[in-house]
Write the structure tokens for this entry.
Amino acid sequence: MADNRVVQGRMVTPKKLAELVEGESVMDAEPIEDTDRDCPDCGSDVISVGYMPSVTEFVTGYKCQDCDWSERDA
Ligand SMILES: [Zn+2]
């Protein structure tokens, strides 16, 4: 699937990426998007994914493709 991306050497779906950012399972996730941000830890590309950790909440998650860095905006 075109929506999948390689993160830290592993192919991930939008939902899997959201779960990496959230640290637990999520209800739903939108397609993964590129950002113009660079990782503050290693300088690699940062990708983003919008997801719903619960029915009432929508979060945008950011994840470095090469290291453990991630961030979430509620
Ligand atoms: Zn990084």
Notes: The pocket of zinc ion is lined by residues 39, 41-42, 44, 64, 66-67, 69 (CB under 6 Å).
